[in-house]
From TrEMBL:
<keyword id="KW-0206">Cytoskeleton</keyword>
<protein>
    <submittedName>
        <fullName>Tubulin epsilon 1</fullName>
    </submittedName>
</protein>
<keyword id="KW-0493">Microtubule</keyword>
<dbReference type="InterPro" id="IPR008280">
    <property type="entry name" value="Tub_FtsZ_C"/>
</dbReference>
<dbReference type="InterPro" id="IPR036525">
    <property type="entry name" value="Tubulin/FtsZ_GTPase_sf"/>
</dbReference>
<keyword id="KW-0963">Cytoplasm</keyword>
<comment type="similarity">
    <text>Belongs to the tubulin family.</text>
</comment>
<feature type="domain" description="Tubulin/FtsZ 2-layer sandwich">
    <location>
        <begin position="278"/>
        <end position="413"/>
    </location>
</feature>
<dbReference type="InterPro" id="IPR004057">
    <property type="entry name" value="Epsilon_tubulin"/>
</dbReference>
<dbReference type="InterPro" id="IPR023123">
    <property type="entry name" value="Tubulin_C"/>
</dbReference>
<dbReference type="InterPro" id="IPR017975">
    <property type="entry name" value="Tubulin_CS"/>
</dbReference>
<dbReference type="GO" id="GO:0005874">
    <property type="term" value="C:microtubule"/>
</dbReference>
<dbReference type="InterPro" id="IPR018316">
    <property type="entry name" value="Tubulin/FtsZ_2-layer-sand-dom"/>
</dbReference>
<keyword id="KW-0547">Nucleotide-binding</keyword>
<dbReference type="Pfam" id="PF00091">
    <property type="entry name" value="Tubulin"/>
</dbReference>
<dbReference type="InterPro" id="IPR003008">
    <property type="entry name" value="Tubulin_FtsZ_GTPase"/>
</dbReference>
<dbReference type="GO" id="GO:0005525">
    <property type="term" value="F:GTP binding"/>
</dbReference>
Length: 474
């Protein structure tokens, strides 16, 4: 069994990371009834025996003593990390995994990337090495951060480049939360475009998540929770699978949104954490999904997004779940893959689903999905036998699709509005090591990325749908 390390940076990254660890522990507790430290747990948790003077870990097969998350938590403000340390997850982390400051990055990419990146470089590398040393076979780093804030975008991408320097052979999968157009951080377009250049250069895969998409999903679930349609009433506190931080009770503003992103991580790591008839190795995601190194932005969609309130209402048919995964309502970024070009697609299924069900649905959906001519068989599939808590099955679809281009074009437009007037530029240029060329280089990198997607889109007119296959009566 391989291990992975989660690196959560900034307020947003740590809040999402907190939800991930909470839900992951709940999933393992649901399956692991004997209290033994098994291979599934070892993929993301260490089992530490406090009785050992060196704080050493226990071997697989021994009783669970103290589970420690394979994680590094970084924030240049103390608030969120302190909150985690005072909450239910306080035992899951220790001081060797944490790095905080008090002043924050002031919504300035340059402060996070240049100032804090230089000041804390050695400490960050040391914590990453410690986390790696506890792994027998380190397979992947999961980096979680926002794009709009200073610490998330700036220090987050600095940590990403450090990981490439220190662990060049280990996969780097980034979950990056993009701000909405009405974001209250005025400088978020600068921060996002400066961060985009780093993501394009140093990540193996990026899972972009848009705040507005999360808001839309949560609002849709709230409407359903009030029972607009007979038979579609859902549990009010059941955003994905969580019983805490859901849609009722003393929730915090972003709890429901963070649950959705945490479940993206739960699903993408399910094959690494549990057994299945067709497990998908995390390294296989980049190998199969990224035909060109810079075009590694994957659109993710999740289904189901809620639990039904009435247990007598039958689960949606399996085929409907596959259809939902290709609908815009279930995507974590506002885009339309069906009217853009697919480079590759991955389906990660959890629960009691047969390989024949998976193949049947791929054959059913394939004719309606425009794939590049040279990769019509570009499907990657994974089957994990353990479903999310409260569900019989679930599905995560990952699409490498040119539909991300409008998101990047909108980001460029918002950046240009500020940059044309040189508004707020002085805040960045006062930071040691930051030059105006950083802005022009970042914009140039984004332009080149958009152009690569446009070049592929231009070939879409030559797309010929598969011929309709004859049904053979049995």
């Amino acid at each position: 069994m391989t291990q992975s390390v989660v690196v959560q940076i900034g307020q947003c990254g740590n809040q999402i990371g907190c939800r991930f660890w909470d839900l992951a522990l709940r999933e393992h507790a649901h399956v692991n009834k004997e209290g033994l430290y098994d291979e599934a747990l070892s993929s993301f948790f260490r089992n530490v025996d406090s009785r050992k003077s060196d704080g050493g870990g226990c071997a697989v097969g021994e009783s669970i003593q103290h589970l420690k998350a394979r994680a590094v938590l970084v924030d240049m403000e103390e608030g969120v990390v302190n909150e985690i340390l005072q909450g239910a997850l306080r035992e899951v982390f220790d001081s060797a995994q944490l790095l905080t400051d008090v002043s924050g990055s002031g919504n300035n990419w340059a402060v996070g990337h240049m100032t804090y990146g230089s000041t804390y470089r050695e400490q960050i590398v040391e914590k990453l090495r410690k986390a790696a040393e506890h792994c027998d076979c380190l397979q992947c780093f999961f980096i979680i951060h926002s794009m709009g804030g200073g610490t998330g975008s700036g220090l987050g991408t600095r940590v990403l480049s450090l990981l490439e320097e220190e662990f060049p052979e280990v996969s780097r999968i980034v979950t990056a939360v993009y701000p909405s157009a009405d974001d209250d951080v005025i400088t978020s377009p600068y921060n996002s475009v400066l961060a985009m250049r780093e993501l394009t250069e140093h990540a193996d895969c990026v899972l972009p998540v848009e705040n507005q998409s999360l808001v839309d999903i949560v609002n849709r679930i709230k409407r359903m929770a009030h029972g607009e349609k007979p038979g579609s009433v859902i549990k009010k506190n059941s955003t994905i699978i969580s019983n805490k931080g859901g849609l009722s009770g003393a929730e915090k503003p972003f709890d429901a949104m963070n649950n959705i992103v945490a479940n993206l991580l739960l699903n993408i790591t399910s094959s690494a954490r549990f057994e299945g008839s067709l497990n998908m190795d995390l390294n296989e995601i980049a190998i199969n999904m990224v035909p060109f190194p810079r075009l590694h932005y994957l659109v993710s969609s999740l289904t189901p997004l809620y639990m039904l309130a009435d247990v007598n209402v039958p689960n949606r048919r399996l085929d409907q779940m596959f259809s939902d995964a290709f609908s815009k309502d279930h995507q974590l970024i506002r885009a339309d893959p069906k009217h853009s070009l697919y480079l590759a697609c991955a389906l990660m299924v959890r629960g009691d689903v047969q390989l024949s069900d998976l193949r049947r649905n791929i054959e059913r959906l394939r004719p309606s999905l425009p794939f590049v001519s040279w990769n019509k068989e570009g499907w990657k599939t994974g089957l994990c036998s353990v479903p999310p808590v409260g569900h019989s099955h679930s599905l995560l679809a990952l699409a490498n699709n040119t539909c991300v281009k409008p998101t990047f074009m909108e980001l460029k437009e918002r950046f240009t509005k500020l940059y044309r007037k040189k508004a707020h530029l002085h805040h960045y240029l006062h930071v040691n090591g930051m030059e105006q060329s950083c802005f022009s280089d970042a914009l140039g990198s984004l332009d080149a990325l958009i152009e690569e997607y446009q070049h592929l889109d231009a070939t879409k007119d030559r797309f010929i749908p598969d011929a309709i296959r004859l049904s053979i009566a049995s």
